[in-house]
Fold Tetratricopeptide repeat protein.
Amino acid sequence: MNEKEMNIDETESKKERIGELLEKREEYANNGEIEKEIEVLRELRILFKSVFGVESEENIKILTELGNSLKYIGKFKEAIRLLARAENIIIKKYGEDSMAFVMCNANMAEVYRIMRNYDKVEEKYFKAIKTYKKNNFKNTYIFAGICNNLGLVYEENKCYQDSINWQKRALKELKDLRDRDSEIQSAIVLSNMVKPYVKLKEKELAEITMDETLGILKKEIGEYSTLYSNILNNWSNVYFEDKDYKKSLELLEKCEKICRIMLGTENKNYGDILKKIETVKKEVNKKKIEQYVWKNQIIKKVKN
């Protein structure tokens, strides 16, 4: 076997290994085993670079995937470094006026968001938006996602009206698509608007938004889904934080019913929901006692 044949054989062996690793990666991703997934991505990064080349689309993708995954285990510096490498290749290969550049900046923004480096978050997101608008790109899902994420950034910074404004912009982008995916995405965006409305004391708008969200989800994926129950659970947390324990309990009890049917009573997540219900019930009863005591005190004062 000559040198050329040996190189071909080695490349084929690496490609076979890539196929095996991609299957493992999917398995780990589906099971939520993030650290094992990252180990696979690290090996894939070496193989992709060797087989496809430094400036290949495949290498950009693996740098991006690994960078995005590392943020979930707190490896922020490494995540930014890998995404910056991807950005350099993108600029060289496609230029800054490209959708790949938009996506890369959006990915970096999300790492900075988890780091709570909000100046960098805005810088990266606004750079992505500027490039998107300048080139009149037409990828609605990507732009709506950026608007939604900016809304979450402003919510985290307690700028609730700004948060709502960006969520409304995301909804506007999704409005004309009218397919199943865009409807589900719209429901997610709407669900994110509930907390800002509650914080702004716009309780009626929060109720309307919840009804609209659940209406869409019932139609598109049904009540008995992880997304539906997670949204109810998140809203329950919002109302608990706002000390509206009665509403928090109402939402949790809906969540409990769905999880009981979906997961069964032996499931850990179902058990966690029951514990939360007990906690909220204690607060509801405590509030009732406080109101009763307060009422009696007022009656005594009036009589005296």
Observations:
- The chain has three domains: 12-130, 138-213, 223-304.
- The mean pLDDT is 92.
